[in-house]
Amino acid sequence: MSLFSRNAALAEMFSRHGAALCQAEELSRDTVTDALNDGHMVFLGNPRHAGVAPRLVGQPARVKVNANIGTSPMDNSPAAEMRKLLVAVDAGADTVMDLSIAGDLRAIRVEILAGCSLPLGTVPLYSVARRYAEAGKDPALFSPEELFEEIERQAEEGVDFMTVHCGLTKRGAEWASEAGGRIMGVVSRGGTILARWMRKHGAENPLLLGYDRILDIAGKYNVTLSLGDGLRPGAGADAGDAAQWEEVVMLGRLAREGLRNGVQCMVEGPGHVPMHMVEAQIRGIKAACNNAPLYVLGPLVIDSSPGYDHIAGAIGGALAVRAGADFLCYLTPAEHVALPDAADVRLGVIASRIAAQAGETALGRPQALRREATMSTARKRLDWKAMQATALDAKAVCSKRGEHADEEVCAMCGDFCAVKMSREE
Amino acid sequence: MSLFSRNAALAEMFSRHGAALCQAEELSRDTVTDALNDGHMVFLGNPRHAGVAPRLVGQPARVKVNANIGTSPMDNSPAAEMRKLLVAVDAGADTVMDLSIAGDLRAIRVEILAGCSLPLGTVPLYSVARRYAEAGKDPALFSPEELFEEIERQAEEGVDFMTVHCGLTKRGAEWASEAGGRIMGVVSRGGTILARWMRKHGAENPLLLGYDRILDIAGKYNVTLSLGDGLRPGAGADAGDAAQWEEVVMLGRLAREGLRNGVQCMVEGPGHVPMHMVEAQIRGIKAACNNAPLYVLGPLVIDSSPGYDHIAGAIGGALAVRAGADFLCYLTPAEHVALPDAADVRLGVIASRIAAQAGETALGRPQALRREATMSTARKRLDWKAMQATALDAKAVCSKRGEHADEEVCAMCGDFCAVKMSREE
Q1: Is residue B387 helix, strand or coil?
Q2: What ranges do the domains of chain B cover?
């Protein structure tokens, strides 16, 4: 029985958007439906999200890029977040996540949903924990019931994908503690809250025990589950330890269970991973998760570049894409240091698109190779209009050229331009 | 017979600076002198460069980063170049190259030499070609004699290393033409001028025919020759072609000949190389060149990121370092588009240092691992002073934190900080 027959919301959305998506991806309908049925690809698009332009995530679709926005307690301006949303869209993000943790979270989310045709993701646990924190209570005191209600509310509102840390087990959380040998312990916000909840209640993760309930909600609204990696390494030295793999294998089992129940699942991945381990991590996670679409955060290949984590993340992202990652969550220059501003958002999206283009070029993906060939040819012709049109960020080319934008050569070499000199004989 | 006995200038400089360099590199004197004798490492430092702080380049010394500065016909301000020099030093560059091609080149170079304790590199051909261009003549009309005189003059002035495109042959230049099948042809400025000279004069490369003469000069002043890759690929699709390898094998032969004559040589490398070919290129070039220190420009893993080539270059640079490259020439956001300004210079140096740190971390180099461990530990302790001190760019951390610089957590998560939440139980 196909996924479509078990997920009416997906079937409806695919009948409306499938043809255009297949065309944009340059993939046949059979290729796409087979990949969706096998759980190797997901279709992001909740029918309740009015005006959503769905996206396909997973091979062999083009690698996608997500931009995180959202308020924080120390930097809480919903209007600024709406501006960041526009910047993310303009810079070429494929999806957006609202990670707000301050202010009226529901109002912010609803405004973003209304203003954003890109698929929107959230972490429902934040909203629940936020209520407790706001009331001066421990966020880990929430009841599982509240969390399921929040998930259903956000699904009704139209959220297209949600991070749920269902694979985080009690023993995984113990192994990930400092006592368990980690340098950084747990660095995921959601993972930290859940680990604390489990310790306080002496019980197993409510998102794991209540997975059936989550599947019911997700199936009804075609919410794609993004199975969160609460135990991802937060330092290069923690990458690939027992705690991480404990969670990965659970995520793989949960992704298969989701698919059997007509629910689309992605798997979230690291995190902080030194270069020599990126390929092993990506291939290992994909294998353990039946090739479910892999959504990575970075990975950051070094810890020592705060202020420039978009660059360290682009190195890891490019390696990850080449090794099979499907979806890059951006990192901005503000990561580990501050809430990103609009300029950071732009840089983060572009850096991730560079990583995707680098990885896909290495993989020989036709769209990536075409862009490369078009750029090189335009460069050889000194055709600046074509270079600008082909560049991953046309605006940057334009602004960098500045006062020299109308000249044949660029200001680096002037008449010493090698291309021009080669031509003039 | 050791290199030192054939190169009195090197012997003198090493006796003065060797102990401090060995200490800084955490390498024994024997390790360093063996590597220098084998030609696997070079000591950059011309005794005529007053106040120079020499650098070791080549494994197992730490990977070094070079910043290019210099005037261009469309952006000619020697004062601006002096400011860029200070920025490059402040950002952590190990060496600087003066690639000026406009204005009074000698005056600029002498000013940079006097103001720069880092080893300085140049491309003497630019000065010669510039004289012709300035007089409205074809730069390819220069006489070989003028070029040798320029090399000697710059050596006397104290230039520490010079790019000389001695490995560029007539047949290599033909193979690298568009007629030979390349998309971009020759993209090196020096390579273009030499290829044109060879066609005009129907003769072989004067830098190749006159290599003995260059060795005499270089040996006298301990100028390290940076054997230039005039035929490096200028598009990903051109990487690894016959023209490139024709030059690489010549560079390897010339490096060995240099060493036999007591002259230190590095080999310059690409350029534009897609990710999947970087390792093969680096290992191939090192093997063909007897492991002479490899000085790479990038490499750029995609062509389609003008405005952000420091990021595409950091991806390639990290892969190159991991595969064995010794020396990274920076790329700035201005590459292919404009002459870099001071902000571009800073970003270029930092991006290259990130690439070096990523590659060296993957290689398990002790200094790189120590920096990573120090950062992770500081992060776990929320010790912002230590994070700033350990960051590749302390200033960026400080300015990003802004008004929140005195708080325990950062503005991204505020009290939702995973590290803080994990701690408070």
Answers
A1: helix
A2: 3-362, 367-424
Query: Which residue type sits at B337?
Result: V
How far apart CA B311 and CA A392 sit, in angstroms, is 12
Residue A48 Cα distances to A9, A45, A162, A219, A300, angstroms:
10, 9, 14, 13, 35
CB B109 within 8 A of CB B159: yes
Q: Would the CA dihedral through A232, A235, A240, A242 be positive or negative?
A: negative
Beta bridge partners of A348: none
Residue with tokens 């985080």: A168
A3-362: CATH topology is TIM Barrel (3.20.20)
Question: Measured over all CA atoms, what is the biggest interatomic distance in chain A, rounded to whole angstroms?
Answer: 81
Across the interface, of A188, A315, A387, the residue whose CB is closest to B418 is A188
Name residues 42-71 of chain B within 8 A of A (Cβ): none
pTM comes to 0.97
- Residue B79 gets which letter from DSSP? H
Whether residue B419 and residue A184 make contact (CB cut-off 8 A), yes or no, is: yes
Q: At what angle do helices B242-260 and B211-221 cross, to 10 degrees?
A: 50
**Where do the DSSP E strands lie in B210-285?**
224-227, 265-269
Question: Nearest CA to B414 among A101, A345, A67?
Answer: A101
The shortest C-alpha distance from B253 to chain A (Å) reads 26
Q: What is the ipTM of this complex?
A: 0.97
Alpha helices in B226-292 (DSSP H): 242-260, 275-288
| A152 alpha-carbon distance from chain centroid | 22
Q: At what angle do helices B342-362 and A309-323 cross, to 10 degrees?
A: 50
- Which uninterrupted H or E stretch holds A285? helix A275-288
Among A residues 130-149, those touching chain B with beta carbons less than 8 Å apart? 133, 139
**E strands within A129-223?**
161-164
pLDDT tens, residue by residue, B141-171: 999 999 999 999 999 999 999 999 999 999 9
Q: Do B400 and A302 touch (CB under 8 A)?
A: no
Place of tokens 């919410």: A223
How far apart CA A72 and CA A87 sit, in angstroms, is 19
Whether residue B331 contacts residue B351, with contact meaning beta carbons closer than 8 Å, is answered with yes
- Number of neighbours of residue B127 by Cβ within 10 angstroms: 21
Reply yes or no on whether the pLDDT at A425 is more than 80: no
What is the rounded CA–CA span in Å between residue B42 and residue B14? 11
> At A55, phi and psi to the nearest 5?
-130, 145
Handedness of CA A184, A188, A192, A195 (dihedral sign): negative
Please state whether beta strands A55-57 and B161-164 pair in parallel, antiparallel, or not at all (unpaired): unpaired
> What is the C-alpha separation between B233 and B183, in angstroms, rounded?
9
- Give CA separation, B65 vs A318, B58, B195, B298, B357, in Å: 22, 12, 29, 11, 11
Give the pair of three-digit tokens for residue A322.
Answer: 């080449």
Query: How does pLDDT run across B370-403, given as a tens digit for each residue?
Result: 999 999 999 999 999 999 999 999 999 999 998 8
Three-state DSSP class for residue B68: strand
The C-alpha of B89 sits at a distance from chain A's nearest C-alpha, in angstroms, of 18
Cβ pair A320, A337 in contact under 8 A: no
